[in-house]
Amino acid sequence: MTSDRDLALHCNAWPFQEARKILARTGGATPAKGHVLFETGYGPSGLPHVGTFGEVARTSMVRHAFSLMSDAPTRLYAFSDDMDGLRAVPGNVPNPEMLRAHLGKPLTAIPDPFGTHDSFGAHNNARLEAFLDQFGFDYEFKSATACYQSGLFDETLVAVLRHYDEIMAVMLPTLKPERRATFSPVLPISPASGRVLQVPLVRVDADAGTVAFEDEDGATREVPVTGGRCKLGWKTDWAMRWAALGVDYEMSGKDLIDSVKHSSAICRVLGAEPPEGFTYELFLDENGEKISKSRGNGLSIDEWLRYGTRESLGLFMYNAPRKAKRLYFDVIPRHVDDYAAHLERYPKQTPEERLKNPAWHIHAGAPPAPGQPLSYGVLLNLASVCNAEDKAVLWGFISGYVADATPETAPVLDALAGHAVNYYKDFVKPSRRYRAPDERERAALAELAGALETLPDDAEAIQYEVYEIGKRHGFEPLRGWFKALYETLLGQSQGPRMGSFIALYGRAETIALIRRVLAGETPDSA
Asked: Which of 467, 466, 434, 473 is nearest to 450 (CA)?
């Protein structure tokens, strides 16, 4: 019998492909530091967002895939670049004038505008940890400020000075001519103002571990590169962190391809091997344009979770990470139902098939039992035809369709009903457009109403009769018949499997709905 490890070693699901790169890197042994280190990065000048979730979720999937291949211990660092100088005042925080007075200072040296933490950086770090904890991620939080100030980076920071000219040789060709004249990979923190300075260095003394520079007040000052008195510019900082911590794996977006290239070169200058990496595509908005935090054209985690499940968001992140995808509200219903379909298939699959099932990766190898007897699409259309403002309306139908189901005994279904009502109110209801049926459609609808009076309360029997009526009335292809049902009865161009929908909504209720339409009334006028 083939073991799970053997199956993992040959599985072509992308997390296993990534995990095999790490396995090759380590040679199947535990690194000298005692663990294989995964890392994700976070810029705490803003709050956690969908991209933050995506990077941690995807990295966790690779980490778990690796754990099936190797017995080496693993760790995941969620690293916050909280020593970065604040470049601009975010538009969504209180007390912006207070923040403006501290521009240029490290985020952990700026008062918290929310008044809840010791610094602005600490506030956003706490939000990051709460955010990750909400989703149950297994990680260790790391603060750049703590790492710099504790001395953890000191040895590698001195190595940066020893290899200063080599690092400059990597960086200078990447800069515009005017920036080359003032560039330094080491950014001293002014003892006078507390700001992170991007100034040329007057002197670099690797033996003493110090740098000299002209401060904002015109004075020449010398400070140690260690102990948090300086920080490094972005690409050198990333490389230094990889070298100091021994990072084995880190993902990054397509927009950082050049940064990865240059930081990897600097990491090698420092005598370390850069981590294995994975470049994921960026998300697109409703118009197919790149999502930008500054433009605010993205979709937030809270917005997704108003209309869909956490697992559906996990599926969105799992699917085709190297493909640019629209991250907009209209993708949520499909991902909810696709996740349910993957979960439904899982118990019936072979061990090899299970490793390719997204549910395995979303749930770290232990998916729950299927628990969604109704699709999101059916619930959404039920909300539409009922004009539901509360999920209790849906439960009036659900309890008669799903035996012994209540909000208490079927919490997954209850949550889904709430999501469907939210989606209906915010998106479907404002855009519904009913049309009157033409003569052929009227005849087919009348026959359907009559057939429903004698059919059993069985979704498959109803679905079969719907098909047959469409055929008898010359709908070819049949999707024209279903489109007519959706547009005349539901006010939309797409809809549910009609047999399941009618069985849930009720034959009598559907007959009444059809007769209102045939009488020229608006379907939701009752």
From this structure: 466
